[in-house]
């Protein structure tokens, strides 16, 4: 518990990182939510999928959770604080475990302001309109978002731990999720059901359409990615010289 | 207390430490000296479990550092002064270390007071001078009130007042029976505080001796001045004492003591105007050993 508290304290005492991530996320979600509400506002009553579409805008928070995971790990290497961390806790796997818990919690936490922002925009714009109702299916989507963001943060953390270098980890994450995965899916369609972004995270969110893996299929796939990358992160971190 | 045995560390093709062995005695201040690139920092990082040895071992309090149950409470370490998040305040840096080590938060204020940073503890470390960062590093090392300190260039960036403060702090810690291994390139400082010195060069062991032994070994002999220099020279050489040089009334004598030279002169009625054992500094010994 003390290690988890220390990791959360590290994030809390460098608020610029957290707030930077949060501001960027909210800016994108705010624009997306405004666009969604604007296009739905002309229909009366509102389209049946309006609430789901609205909350789905917040799924971009999962990507920011991945970046947050990368930052939580690589900031230590970038500023050299990893030496002090490993001096206090030489069992490096415990440090990674505590960071994983902190990353999952913080990754999920940054979803909440995004969802609240989308709801606030909708409330202001179409609050009194017929058909605007947040119910069980929307809450289920929020829970899926929280889970996907936690998984995303864990993947980011593992990549950050395995590489150690902040820039390299960012390039890998951005390159993979924005370019490589799309290219792989286009070139080798049979891999689409196994890719970390489209299949694992997309399946958890249920945003991939009827052809993407179901939640039940995506969950073990996401777990496999988290465990696999986590194992690599532990092995590399245990062997790494802190010079 | 600290034992390094046949330690070798290779980074790719670079041999940083080569079969190095030494022991640091309990309750002593041991200076760890060597020219730049000698392998001091690598050795200290192996001792602290941050770098894995290629072969050999390092133990603190009888265990590898990684096997210590409460390392912060047993070993305090100062590494380079740049290992801080610039956006975190000094106080928060210590709170993080304290939280990770399971130490009470009140200890943070105590060590801030000890290192004289209480007034600046709320400021971001990014705005600290190098000297303030060193003090913060020392504060982190003191958090767990450990018995052993491993300090890598702790005087770096300190002003003369700071160096004096550091000297008094280390002497006070040693006076409490704590063990200190300190690497430094400020040899005059080490000479003033260290009981023993370990010297390495190009990763290899060169010397382990007390500071006094080392200075004495590098000493230049005895200088003796007499108006009867020729007669004195003959007496000394007759007694088997080597006179290394003579210049008028001045003789340089090696491998003996001032007492023996004085006794011989007195016994032979020779007047002496000067009889001095030429001392040598640790710096001279260091340069001699690592040249």
Describe this structure as you would to a colleague.
The complex is a heterodimer of chains A (243) and B (291). Chain A is built from 11 helices and no strands. The model of chain A has no long low-confidence stretch (mean pLDDT 90). Chain A starts with a helix and ends with a helix. By secondary structure, chain A is mainly alpha-helical. Chain B has 291 residues and is of the alpha/beta class. Chain B has 2 domains: 2-211, Rossmann fold; 218-290, Alpha-Beta Plaits (2-Layer Sandwich), CATH 3.30.70. In chain B, the strands form 3 sheets. A 6-stranded mixed sheet of chain B has the order 5-6-7-3-8-9, with helices on both faces. Chains A and B meet through α1 and α5 of A and α3 of B.
Q: Which architecture name of the largest domain in chain B does CATH use?
A: 3-Layer(aba) Sandwich
The best one-word shape of chain A is globular
Largest interface, Cβ cutoff 8 Å: A-B, 27 and 36 residues
In the CATH scheme, the class of the largest domain in chain B would be Alpha Beta
The count of DSSP E runs of length 2 or more, i.e. the number of strands of chain B, is 13
Number of strands of chain A: 0
The fold-level CATH name of the largest domain in chain B is Rossmann fold
Topology order of chain A in helix (H) and strand (E) letters: HHHHHHHHHHH
What is the H level of CATH, i.e. the homologous superfamily of the largest domain in chain B?
P-loop containing nucleotide triphosphate hydrolases
Helical proportion of chain B, percent range = 25-40%
**Structural class estimated from helices and strands of chain B:** alpha/beta
The coarse overall form of chain B would be elongated
Put simply, the count of helices of chain A is 11
């Amino acid at each position: 518990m003390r290690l988890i508290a220390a990791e959360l304290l590290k994030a809390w005492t460098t608020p610029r990182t957290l707030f930077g991530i949060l501001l960027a996320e909210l800016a994108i979600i705010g624009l997306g939510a405004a666009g969604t509400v604007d296009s739905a506002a002309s229909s009366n009553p509102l389209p049946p999928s309006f609430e789901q579409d609205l909350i789905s805008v917040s799924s971009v928070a999962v990507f920011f959770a991945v970046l947050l995971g990368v930052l939580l790990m690589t900031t230590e290497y970038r500023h050299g604080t990893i030496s002090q961390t490993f001096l206090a806790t030489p069992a490096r796997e415990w440090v990674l475990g505590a960071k994983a818990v902190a990353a999952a919690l913080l990754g999920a936490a940054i979803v909440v302001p995004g969802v609240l922002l989308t709801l606030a925009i909708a409330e202001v714009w179409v609050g009194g309109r017929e058909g605007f109702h947040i119910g069980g299916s929307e809450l289920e989507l929020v829970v899926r978002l929280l889970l996907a963001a936690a998984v995303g943060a864990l993947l980011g953390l593992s990549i950050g731990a395995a590489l150690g270098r902040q820039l390299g980890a960012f390039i890998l994450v951005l390159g993979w999720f924005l370019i490589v995965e799309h290219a792989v899916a286009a070139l080798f369609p049979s891999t689409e059901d196994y890719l970390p972004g489209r299949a694992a995270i997309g399946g958890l969110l249920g945003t991939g359409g009827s052809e993407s893996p179901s939640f039940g299929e995506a969950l073990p796939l996401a777990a496999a990615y988290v465990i696999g990358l986590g194992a690599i992160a532990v092995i590399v971190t245990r062997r790494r010289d802190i010079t | 207390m600290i034992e390094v045995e046949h330690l070798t560390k290779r980074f790719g093709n670079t041999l940083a430490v080569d079969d190095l062995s030494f022991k640091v005695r309990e309750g002593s201040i041991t200076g760890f000296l060597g020219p730049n690139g000698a392998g001091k920092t690598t050795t200290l990082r192996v001792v602290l479990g941050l770098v894995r040895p290629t072969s050999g071992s390092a133990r603190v309090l009888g265990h590898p550092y990684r096997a210590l149950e409460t390392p912060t409470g047993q070993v305090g370490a100062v590494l380079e002064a740049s290992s801080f998040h610039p956006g975190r305040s000094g106080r928060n840096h210590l709170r993080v270390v304290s939280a990770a080590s399971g130490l009470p938060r009140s200890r943070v204020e105590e060590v801030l007071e000890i290192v004289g940073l209480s007034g600046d503890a709320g400021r971001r470390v990014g705005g600290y001078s190098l000297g303030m960062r060193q003090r913060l590093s020392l504060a982190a090392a003191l958090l767990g009130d450990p018995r052993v300190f491993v300090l890598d260039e702790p005087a770096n960036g300190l002003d003369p007042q700071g160096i004096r403060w550091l000297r008094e702090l280390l002497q006070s810690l040693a006076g409490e029976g704590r063990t200190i291994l300190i690497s430094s390139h400020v040899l005059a400082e080490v000479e003033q505080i260290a009981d023993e010195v370990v010297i390495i060069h190009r990763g290899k062991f060169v010397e382990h001796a007390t500071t006094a032994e080392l200075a004495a070994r590098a000493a230049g002999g005895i200088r003796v001045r007499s108006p009867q220099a020729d007669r004195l020279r003959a007496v000394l050489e007759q007694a088997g004492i080597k006179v290394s040089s003579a210049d008028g009334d001045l003789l340089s004598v090696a491998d003996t003591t001032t007492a023996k030279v004085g006794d011989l002169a007195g016994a032979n009625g020779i007047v002496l105007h000067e009889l001095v054992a030429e001392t040598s500094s640790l710096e001279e010994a260091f340069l001699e050993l690592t040249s």
